[in-house]
Amino acid sequence: MRAKVERAGLAAAILIDSAGTHGYHVGEAPDQRSQQAARQRGYDLSTQRARQVTRADFERFDLVLAADQRNLAALRQLCPPGMQHKLALMLAPLGPNQEVPDPYYGGASGFDRVLDLLEAACDGWLARLQQAEIQP
């Protein structure tokens, strides 16, 4: 998403971050297979480090996206009642209730499939943001 936002000239207007609902890998870099698949598409994930979602994230961000229903439920538990409208599934632009599959236990092709889905969803989210007249 960050690369798409930069190409659209909206990097000054849109803050992007990533966090998990659990703290299992806090401080760690993304899975090497994920980094490899991303690198083949021109994305550098090497400086990213995992962090856990905090209550402050719901104040800081206008939109908080979850990979799947399990993570969406965890976000709903943490999110203050007046901010629940900020929550959505990452793949919502592709259709209702679509979830990002977990490629961890599969082969390299699973990481490519996830990137295909995420790129398409990011195009959809960016179009929605542009329709909302986000200005840099």
Short recap of the structure:
With 136 residues, this protein is mostly helical. Helix content is 40%, strand content 4%.
Commentary on this structure:
There is one protein chain. This protein is mostly helical and 136 residues long. It has a single domain (2-131), classed as Rossmann fold. The chain is built from 5 helices and 2 strands; from the N terminus they run H-H-H-E-H-E-H. The protein has a two-stranded parallel ribbon with strand order 1-2. Strand 1, helix 4 (69-78) and strand 2 (87-89) form a beta-alpha-beta unit. It is globular. The mean pLDDT is 94. Its EC number is 3.1.3.48. Keywords: Hydrolase, Protein phosphatase. This is protein-tyrosine-phosphatase.
Overall tally of domains: 1
Radius of gyration: 15 Å
First-last Cα distance: 16 Å
Strand content: under 5%
CATH superfamily: Response regulator
CATH topology: Rossmann fold
Low-pLDDT stretches = none
Helix content estimate: 25-40%
What's the helix count? 5
What structural class do helix, strand and pairing data support?
A: mainly alpha
Q: How is the largest sheet built, in terms of strand order?
A: 1-2
CATH hierarchy: architecture: 3-Layer(aba) Sandwich
Silhouette: globular
Mean pLDDT across residues = 94
How many DSSP-defined strands?
2
Helices and strands, in order, run as HHHEHEH
Please outline the major beta sheet.
Answer: 2 strands, parallel
